[in-house]
Amino acid sequence: MRFRLILQPLMAALVAIRDGLEDARTGRSPYFWTVLRDPRRRVGRLNEGLNGTARIILLAVAMDTIYQIIVLKRFYPTEAVGIAVLLAFVPYLVIRGPVTRLARGSGARRKAGDIVNDRKGGRFRMPVGRGYRRAL
Length: 136
Prior knowledge:
single chain, mainly alpha, three-stranded antiparallel sheet, 4 helices, elongated
């Protein structure tokens, strides 16, 4: 079961890279920086991160439960959740912001006025001026 120490952070990193590139394309601020510094958007961004890593966290809890039952012959739910968050959400939190910054530096950021598809399938024009979204 040692592979969980590699598999869970790797999966979190892949999701973080995907979401970080999306942040760069849409022009949003880096994830961890927003969570720390912007109280108005903190809860929304944390929910976004938890939604992005929900499957990984559930898989981590399941793998840790199996590990505990096989090796320890007991189940400690608090430890399972703690390990899942440590191995799945923390790497996501750490990797997503730097990926956004690197992608912006490489030109992945869109300019104001560009037409962009959001995750929900809608199309909008990139913010111009004060940051409003104008639907197409």
